Structures are given as structure tokens and as C-alpha cells.
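Example 4.3 (complexes with small molecules)
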Amino acid sequence: MQRILVLGGTTEARQLSARLAARADLAVTLSLAGRTASPAAQPVPVRSGGFGGAQGLADYLAAERVDLLIDATHPYAAMISANAARAAELAKTPLLALRRPPWVPVAGDHWTEVGGAQGAVDALGPEPRRVFLTLGRNELAPFARAPQHHYLVRSVDPVDPPLAVPDAIYVTGRGPFDEAHDRALIEAHRIEVVVAKNSGGSATYGKIAAARALGLSVIVLRRPALPQVPAVETVDAAVAWLDHAVTP
Ligand code: NAP
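Answer. The structure with NAP bound is encoded below.
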């Protein structure tokens, strides 16, 4: 029996765990950061909360006798990915990263790529605009320095406290959000520009497709640098890697 720890918080981590849950040769635990008030149901046992940095994670890997570590966290969760790489070294535990490929702009897209939330604020400029903000709750603070805009803010959990701007509307939802859904939302709120991470995958691509169809600009936060570790892009590829890794 091989013990596997999946660092999750993503659709892919849940899908991978579901694929592995029934296997008699594997014991899978899924790790969540514990940020979401009502996390989605998961197909395997879950542990929740931080480990206390790379050393904390290395200690966990040793104490729980984890045979394989899979980093299936979100591509913008750079800290836990760096910690996973370091912890795997410290504990001498094989590590695989499961990372969705980024979206690539296609004909009809009007993207401005920026380095972070402050870069997005700068790119919005001084004139008031109607902005659809689809970043995580933790990245909203810089937009308080641009109170001239109207904001439509979408997040998984409510933004509390709300953004300190006079003109903001909040919607919550976990997705997936398809193009028709996001187009209707964008049109209902007369949105002029979308601010998004390059999350990759299909679950949140609706706003990118809707912006293209409507000829809107998208300000895209560039992906953070991630550690160089063995990596695959799909759940199928992760299962194939695991089959190879756990073969006696
Ligand atoms: P982060 O900045 O990379 O990590 C901050 C700290 O949170 C880590 O140092 C670690 O604490 C803890 N942590 C993060 N992911 C964890 C996990 N799966 N299990 C246990 N501890 C974890 O992470 P983040 O960007 O805040 O993301 C938090 C979670 O939300 C991740 O699981 C990620 O997959 C998910 N998520 C993030 C985004 C995003 O845009 N960032 C989007 C969708 C989902 P310790 O140092 O104490 O171990």
C-alpha cells in the first residue's frame, strides 16, 4: 500500500483523488489550505490547514510515511508549490506537480498581461471604467486605490470586509462558469474590462470567451514562477505517472 498526499484546492486535485480513491494499492489523503468556508465534498480523506512552511510539510511527510507527494494546487498558489519542492527534498519523497497549461490568447482576444494586482490597477488607468474583477479575495486590496471605477467582484466566499470603494457589487460562486453565463453577467452589468488570472482549464474560461465575443479588453495577471519539478498537465498523465511510480 503506497501512501499518497495530494496538495489540492483545485478541480484537478479532486478529479485525481476520485480516480485513485477506489484503488486497493493506494491510500490517498487530500490536503486543503482550509480557506473556504464550505469546501466542496471530496472523494478521499481530507486534512486541512497549513503545515508550517517547508519544514512543517517535510515533517508531516516523514511522520505520515508518505510515499509520494502530488502538488495539484492552483498555478497561482506559489508558496505551497515552493514548499512542496523543498519539503520533498528534505524528506526524500518523490514529487509530481499537476499543473494546468495556461490559456493562450487567440484571434479576437484583447489581452494586457500584467505582473500582479497592482499592475492591473495601473493598466485600468485613471478614467472610470466598469470592471469585472475575478481574482481571489486576497488580491483585491490594491483596487481600493482606484476608487473611480465601478467594480463587479466575483469570489467563492463573500469579500469581508468589502473593498473600500464607493461603487462595487459582489457575486459569489464556485463555478464552473460557461461563456453564456459570463456573457449574460457581463452584459447585465455593462462591463467594459475583465481582470483575471490565467488559471487555465475550462471551469473559468467562460469570461475569457465572453470577453472575446463582446470585444472587451482582458487584463491578465501573469502566472508566478513555480519550482522546476517533474510535472504533468492532465489528470490522465498524473495517473499514468503514478502507475509507473508505484509499480513494484
Ligand atoms: P499559497 O499562497 O501558495 O500558500 C500559502 C500558505 O497556505 C502555504 O504556505 C501553506 O501554509 C498553506 N497552503 C496552501 N495550499 C495548501 C494546501 N493545499 N494544503 C495545506 N496548506 C496549504 O496558497 P494560496 O494561493 O493562498 O492558495 C490556497 C489554496 O487555494 C491552495 O490549496 C490552492 O490550490 C487553492 N486555490 C488558490 C487559487 C489562487 O488563485 N491562488 C485559486 C484557486 C484555488 P503553510 O506554509 O503553513 O504550510
